[in-house]
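Changelog note: in this version the structure field was regenerated for every chain. One regenerated record is shown below for reference.
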Amino acid sequence: MPIEIRELVIKAMVAQPEGASSATSGSGSGNNNTSSSEEIINACVEKILHILKEKNER
């Protein structure tokens, strides 16, 4: 008898390496993190829209 998984919970913890200096985590990198997170969000949105478009075409 097959088992059906209805919910999958994935937890992840992201930490800065201990050897990293505090100068690299200053205000300058904050802007880079914002732009990179925006790029990730935009890529995800594009993939979702593409999937929905394919689903509607069927």
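Spot check on this record: Residues 24-29 have pLDDT under 50 and may be disordered. The CA atoms of residues 16 and 22 lie 10 Å apart.
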